[in-house]
Design brief:
The complex is a heterotrimer of chains A (246), B (472) and C (211). Chain B is an alpha/beta fold and 472 residues long. In chain B, strand 11 and strand 12 form a beta hairpin. In chain B, helix 3 crosses helix 12 and helix 16 packs parallel to helix 18. The mean pLDDT of chain B is 93. By secondary structure, chain C is of the alpha/beta class. Chain C has a single domain, classed as NagB/RpiA/CoA transferase-like (Rossmann fold). Chain C has five helices and twelve strands. Classes of the chains: A alpha/beta (246), B alpha/beta (472), C alpha/beta (211). The interface between B and C is large, with 94 and 71 residues.
């Protein structure tokens, strides 16, 4: 398949390795990856913070950039959540029926990476190798907005050499919540504190997630505490093979 | 309606988060109830069908609220009850005080009712020289202590047993040799309250549901004080938000399944009382129903926000909320805390008075998953955030920054320029290869978290290089 | 003419919903009947009663009076309140009978040691016993003030699910109805569950089989 990579502004700027891994992974599985270079940001932060009209130009731009792609894949449940769950609302605010129509047509073609692999392609074993003790944090968007279920876990279970250990209270929010981490810093940290404790309780070497936003938050806290736990995005683990050193 | 702003959530939360007793009690309470709820809900193969029915019935009621209220009024009157309408708290309090005065009673016994808390009934009665005696154990505790509730269902969760023992010794069990054993404490409360129940002339209650078709009112409870108040005194006054009406008696089949499993995590709560008007020879011979608006019609007028009126006050959203279960109810500054409070309070009192509440959430969506009537709380939170920003001055620093950022993101060139700026400017904030302090508003990130530096090469840089054939 | 509060509120409501779309029809796909056999349903009912520590005696019509008398002896019940229309065949000997005719005072009820009633309907799924003031049940105060409640439930009065009970109550919907599903309880003190706050602290149920 031809896949248009929606990298997300977050990954593009702060976690390019996630994009590199996603590209390598999809190519290894035999697909062609396009990267429409004009892409910028989906507008999630703005919409969620209440600046909803301000998102309209971003929606328009996204539709222009990705309009004709057969499949648009992003290594981010939260950004895909924005497009699939909230783009119709943003388009409705514009009162531009053409935009509303374009968004409706686009939405079914936008996928988060793990759901693309498991649900669209029907693949759970991507030939990955990652001999480490890993715990997985499912993220609110993946569970409750996209309803990915255990697609990411199915992929991780098939990774050769991996020692997967269940994260206690996995379904609970880590406390990032976009601008919540800034506006409600104390509550965010209280939630982070418990999430870190759960991670440490697993004695895992690596914390994995399908959203780098949560990893930034949990990983940032773990690093500040010198807890010695690494963070890896799902794509990075899946891209890893035996021929490349872990 | 209060005209002054509610306390700012972030500040109020910070104080609460530092209270270790509250944190542990609240954590234990919410975890326990949440687990029980999950267990009894999983027993029902038709739970989602019940939610669908509950949600649809509520939506239908709101669309025809005027008709159902008129039907309810007629049915209650037919059954010998009297119906009053109150536009706001002051009017409701005037009506109730007037009724109590008319009986000559100088005190009333009360069943817990959030609605009466909302209108500050006890204070209004006190001003008229009428004592309102709370009969729910937790409400009694906080009334004796002169405090306010911190949880819809377990209001005294912030108090431990020895505090309660000391309180009882000072008040209702003077001179009694009480230990802090919960059984003994409850027995002391039972003795004190039994005297009150057997002698009270007037009772005040709320209502969980009211059936338009038959005029039947319903109170759901655990302790039995409800039954006492609803049965023994001669006069009963029930205060009810107008949104509590349901169309038919058969609708109990849905709501008496949704409510107990969602609230206390039981298949059924110990006692549920249904009554219609007045029944000769059984219970109060005078019944007054006070229908309360107090801002509900504001909520009703909001196309997105009106679903907040579907709430059946189960508190499932409180118990699952990662924010509420750490901050407790006081931080929300309102009778209705937690996720439902974050969407209901701003609509009842005006968004400007409660502008931090819609932001007291990470939008994690756990509340929506457990709401028995499927209120899409995240949707309403987003909607209210939009209202907050629209009401903010365009010169507000955050508004300026966000608009600037949107302008930048709308154009690929500007976007890439901004990426470059971030990469170059970050050196100032780094220490040992990591960003450990950020300026201004962003500083709150680095109070407790490190930030890996912005990589030298962005993804698109890598992609372009690869296109040029330099990398694989 | 001065607008009443009622007029004002109704006007506000109508203004608020004036342009609201009609919501979709109400789906009622939840279970309305328990399709299992009677024996299974009854077993569930008794299990649930035992769960909340009600005392359960299984008997038949012939054995009922003896069972009631035995229970009164066991629980030390000396003054037993009875609804006016309670069948005389149920009335145990060896107790002071307090029929609610003429109506007993609150003080008298408070001084009794127990009450004996029938019920209207019971729900197996939730272990609920429902009184609606009908035959052998009396007014609400009778089953509220005494500290022990002896309750006769005929097997055929037990339905499986909540919706079935609501249907069964329809004819007496406007009578005072009480649903009892356990002793009263509170978890308000540090979340430790304490039972028997108000209302009868002991419930003894006689499940009467047809044969």
């Amino acid at each position: 398949m031809r896949v248009a990579l929606f990298i997300t502004c977050f990954n593009d700027t702060l976690f390019p390795n996630v994009g590199i891994a996603t590209t390598h992974l999809l190519e290894r599985l035999g697909h062609t990856v396009d990267f429409p270079e004009a892409q910028t940001c989906c507008g999630q932060m703005h919409f969620n913070t209440g600046y909803q009209r301000e998102t309209i130009p971003l929606v328009r731009h996204f539709v222009e950039v990705f309009g004709t792609a057969e499949a648009i894949v992003a290594p981010s449940a939260s950004c895909v959540g924005m497009v699939r769950d909230l783009y119709s609302k943003a388009a409705a605010l514009s009162a531009d029926t053409a935009l509303v129509e374009a968004v409706d047509q686009l939405i079914p073609r936008v996928y988060e990476l793990s759901e693309f692999l498991v649900k669209r392609l029907g693949v759970t074993d991507v030939g990955a190798y990652y001999p480490h003790r890993v715990t997985y944090h499912p993220t609110c968007h993946s569970l409750r907005v996209l309803h990915l279920g255990d697609a990411p876990l199915q992929l991780l279970r098939a990774v050769k050499g991996i020692e997967l250990v269940e994260l206690p209270n996995a379904r609970e929010c880590c406390g990032f919540g976009g601008t919540f981490a800034i506006k409600n810093v104390d509550t965010s940290l209280a939630m982070l504190s418990d999430k870190m404790r759960c991670v440490l309780d697993t004695n895992a070497e690596v914390l994995c997630s399908a959203d780098t936003s949560c990893l930034l938050h949990i990983g940032g806290g773990l690093h500040r505490q010198r807890a010695g736990v690494a963070t890896m995005h799902l794509a990075e683990i899946l891209a890893n093979t035996e021929s490349e050193a872990a | 309606m209060p005209s002054k702003s509610l306390p700012m959530f972030p500040q109020a939360a910070k104080a609460a988060l530092d209270n270790s007793q509250l944190r542990r009690n609240l954590g234990k309470a919410t975890t326990t109830i949440r687990t029980k709820r999950a267990s009894v809900v999983s027993e029902l193969p038709d739970w989602e069908d019940l939610r669908a029915a509950g949600s649809a019935i509520k939506a239908h009621v709101m669309r025809h609220l005027d008709e159902y209220l008129l039907q309810l009024e007629a049915a209650v009157q037919r059954a010998g009850g009297q119906v009053h309408w109150a536009r706001d708290a002051a009017e409701a309090n005037r009506i109730i005080t007037g009724i109590v005065r008319g009986t000559g009673a100088d005190h009333v016994v009360k069943v817990k009712s959030l609605t009466t808390d909302e209108i500050h009934l006890n204070k209004a009665l006190a001003a008229a020289g009428i004592r309102a005696i709370e009969t729910d154990l937790a409400e009694l505790i906080i009334q004796l202590a002169g405090e306010t509730s911190s949880h819809i269902l377990v209001p005294a969760i912030h108090k431990n047993r020895s505090e309660i023992r000391d309180l009882f010794r000072r008040t209702i069990a003077k001179g009694e040799d009480l230990t802090d054993n919960p059984q003994q404490l409850a027995a002391a409360a039972r003795r004190y309250l039994r005297e009150q129940f057997l002698s009270a002339q007037v009772a005040v209650s709320g209502a969980n549901f009211a059936i338009a078709e038959t005029g039947t009112i319903c109170v759901v409870e655990s302790e039995g004080n409800g039954r006492m108040c609803l049965t023994l005194p001669q006069t009963l006054i029930t205060v009810m938000g107008i949104e509590k009406v349901l169309p038919t008696f058969q609708d109990f089949a849905v709501f008496l399944q949704l409510l107990p499993r969602s609230s206390t995590g039981e298949r059924m709560n110990p006692y549920t009382s249904l009554w219609t008007g007045v029944t000769p020879g059984d219970g109060p011979q005078t019944f007054h129903l006070v229908l309360l608006d107090n801002g509900r019609t504001n909520v009703l007028a909001d196309e997105v926000g009106r679903q907040a009126l579907h709430c059946i006050r189960c508190s499932a959203c409180l118990n699952i909320c990662p924010v509420y279960s750490r901050t407790g109810g006081h931080a929300y500054g309102s009778v209705y805390p937690g996720p439902i409070g974050a969407i209901l309070t701003p609509q009842l009192v005006g968004v400007k008075q409660a502008k931090t509440l819609p932001y007291a959430s990470t939008l994690c969506g756990a509340c929506y998953e457990v709401c028995p009537v499927k209120i899409n709380i995240p949707e309403v939170l987003l909607h209210l955030r939009g209202e907050v920003t629209r009401g903010t001055s365009p010169l507000n620093p955050e508004a300026l920054a966000m608009r600037e950022l949107a302008h930048i993101f709308a154009n690929p060139k500007r976007y890439e320029q901004a990426q470059g700026l971030a990469r170059h400017g970050q050196g100032l904030f780094m220490h040992g290869g990591v960003i450990d302090h950020l300026p201004g508003m962003l500083g709150s990130w680095t109070t407790a978290r490190d930030l890996a530096p912005v990589p030298r090469q962005s993804f698109r840089d890598w992609w372009r290089e690869r296109q040029k054939g330099d990398q694989v | 003419m001065k607008k009443t509060a009622k007029d004002a509120i109704l006007a506000r409501i109508r203004g608020a919903i004036a342009n609201a779309p009609e919501p979709p029809p109400i789906p009622r796909d939840f279970r309305e009947r328990d399709e299992r056999d009677r024996a299974a349903i009854l077993e569930d009912f008794i299990d649930r009663l035992a769960d909340y520590k009600a005392i359960v005696t299984r008997t038949d019509e012939a054995g009922l009076p003896q069972a009631i008398e035995e229970a009164c002896r066991q629980h030390g019940i000396s003054r037993l309140v009875l609804p006016a229309d309670l069948p005389s065949s149920w009335v145990p000997s060896g107790v002071t009978v307090m029929r609610d005719d003429p109506p007993l005072s609150l003080a008298a009820l408070d001084e009794s040691s127990g009450v004996l009633t029938g019920c209207a309907i019971a729900i197996a799924q939730t272990g609920t016993i429902i009184l609606d003031g009908g035959a052998s049940q009396g007014r609400r105060a009778l089953s509220l003030i005494p500290d022990r409640h002896l309750c006769v439930v005929r097997a055929e009065q037990v339905v499986g699910l909540v919706p079935e009970a609501i249907v069964g109550l329809a004819e007496r919907a406007t009578h005072p109805i009480t649903l009892i599903s356990g002793p009263s309880a509170t978890s308000d003190i540090e979340l430790s569950r304490v039972e028997g706050v108000h209302g009868p602290r002991m419930l003894h149920v006689f499940v009467v089989h047809a044969r």
